[in-house]
Amino acid sequence: MSNKLSAEEIPILLRDYRLTFEPAIDATYSISAKNLLDAEQALVYLQTIAPFFQSPSLLVTASLFGKRYSVLTMASAFYAMSRYDKGLQVAIENIWVEAEGHAKPWLPNVRFIDHMVSEPTTDRNAWRDEVLKGIFADNLAKAWQSLTKISKIPKTILWENTAIYVNWLYETKIREGANEQEINRLQEDYDYIVNQAPGALFGEKKNPLKKYCGPKVKIKESKHPIRLRKTCCFYYHTSDETNDYCISCPKIKRLV
Fold first, then answer.
1. Where in the numbering of this chain does the Ferric siderophore reductase C-terminal domain appear (predicted)?
2. Reduced to 3 states, what is the DSSP secondary structure of residue 87?
């Protein structure tokens, strides 16, 4: 069964989840996502956006762009899946990264070519698998493979970048305003994504998120428990300060 987002459902995705229906006025910083799979076009694009990150290398640019791209791919799709029971068409061939050059911080939007959505019938679990396959195996896995080939960034970093936003979206963002029934569905979807979903849905042999979604721990640098990263995203390379690591960075020497 296919349908469209309703007039009541669209505004929140436009406002809070990086969705847009309009191409950027200046297409310099936009790209059809499928072109990320072409090494030459992807390289040119990474070089074009590197100044937004003050990035010193292709590897750093790939990591920081990967963070934004994972959010674009997942945010509106997860919200639609878990709050609306609707599946956006997130395969890499169906989306554009739309961005303007003047925005600070640089936060691109996602534009869909085909706006039709799927809905569960009798088996929501099977439907959910198809939605997740579109997000991960048919999009992010392909993008990460290409970025790894171009920049030599380990896929483990890209998948941990992804996991961080899966955690944030399901534990915080898309819970905003949810009722009890929606919270239960959100939790069920989250548990499945990070613990039970098979590797095939991610285009991998094993679920690549599971090892990055464990329990939070208390550290002296934070008032609240956090998850410590297992890989470094290289954000510190964009800072003017020496060793300006993220609070969860594995490069920080911590007392045991």
1. 229-251
2. strand
Whether 250 is covered by a domain: the verdict is no
* Alpha-carbon span 217 to 228, nearest angstrom: 8
HSE-up (13 A, CA, CB side) for residue 216: 12
Q: Does some domain include residue 50?
A: yes
- What residues pair up with 88 in beta bridges, in sequence order? 117
Range of the domain at 209: 2-213
> Rounded to 5 degrees, what are φ and ψ at 32?
-65, 125
Count the domains in the chain. Answer: 1
Sheet containing 87-88: order of strands: 2-3, 117-118, 87-88
Question: For 2-17, what is each residue's pLDDT tens digit?
Answer: 589 999 999 999 999 9
CATH number for the domain spanning 104: value is: 1.10.510
Q: With the C-alpha atoms ordered 244, 53, 170, 13, is the resulting torsion angle positive or negative?
A: positive
Residue with tokens 């995705």: 13
How far apart, in whole angstroms, are the C-alpha atoms of residue 156 and residue 152?
11
pLDDT tens column, 75-120: 999 999 999 999 999 999 999 999 988 767 889 999 999 999 999 9
What is the DSSP annotation of 190-207? HHIIIII--GGGGTSSS-
Sign of the dihedral defined by the CA atoms of residues 58, 63, 69, 73, in that order: positive
**In this structure, is residue 256 part of a structural domain?**
no
What confidence tier does 254 reach under pLDDT thresholds 50, 70, 90?
low
Residues of the chain with pLDDT > 90, as a percent, come to 77
Dmax over CA atoms of the chain, in Å, equals: 56
On the CB side of 222, CA atoms within 13 Å amount to: 14
Length of the chain: 256
